[in-house]
Amino acid sequence: MITLMLVLKKSPPPPVGATPQAAASAEQKLSQVQQSVSQGQPATLRLNQAEVNSYIANHLEPGQQAPAAQAPQPQASAPETTPSLPDGGPGALSDSAIEQAKSSVKDVKVTMEGDQVHAYVIFDVHGKDMTLDLVGKLGAQDGYLRFEPVSGKIGSLPIPQAALESAVQQMMNSPENRDKLKLPPGVSDMHIENGQLVTNYH
After folding, report:
1. pLDDT tens digit sequence for 90-102
2. CA-angle at 191, arms to 120 and 144, nearest 5°
3. Can you tell me the distance from the alpha carbon of 93 to that of 88, in angstroms, rounded to the nearest whole number?
4. Which member of 34, 76, 167, 188 lies 3.0 to 4.6 Å from 99 by CB, making a disulfide possible if both were Cys?
């Protein structure tokens, strides 16, 4: 019962701002990078926290998942019901609960510090808002986005590290998510550096 209460108790959102000015700045930077790439020149796109959140706010429609290359989030299968409590307890809960955060995403907020990203996701499970917090590092491997989890929570319930790593690994390697995590043509790397999202084009 306590575990269920913690799962259903939403964690507070991080303090982030999204403004029209930041969204316009992100679009301008992206346009400049695309122009360089079209001319066969390497380029680097750097977006600060306000630009990332403003871009997400402009492109994430209610009930849809943000594109991986724009606001990378582990994705999984469609929700079925409010997370249940398997026999394995909180450790086993995390796999099934995380997997319900796919096609019902209502909001995404991102904070970045050092080389880590904190993604705060609100998703709907049969009319009930729930939250997923993921902290980790972004990277690229063989043309695909990679996410190395550091910590995570479903609602206010911390997810054991071993279960979190297993769940994220399964989601990133699943066939239905593989294409969603493929980086756009020309992108060679994506990572967090000094609190900014850095995307390298070649």
Report:
1. 444 444 544 544 4
2. 95
3. 7
4. 76
From 100, 94, 95, 47, select the one nearest 71 (Cα to Cα). Answer: 47
Q: Over 90: is that where the pLDDT of 156 sits?
A: no
Strands 43-47 and 116-125: unpaired
Greatest mean pLDDT among 6-10, 45-49, 169-173 lies in: 45-49
In the chain, domain spans? 2-201
Strands 116-125 and 128-141: antiparallel
| Owner of token pair 């409590």 | 85
User: Burial code of 71-101, b = ≥16 C-beta within 10 A, e = fewer?
Assistant: bbbbbbeebeeebeeeeeebeebbbbbbbbb
**CA distance linking residue 196 with residue 194, whole number of Å:** 6
9's enclosing H/E stretch is none
pLDDT reported for residue 33:
93
Residue 64's alpha-carbon distances to 25, 75, 93, 113, 153, in angstroms, are 24, 11, 24, 26, 21
Average pLDDT estimate for 71-82? 35
pLDDT digits over 9-41, tens only?
677 778 887 788 999 999 999 999 999 999 989
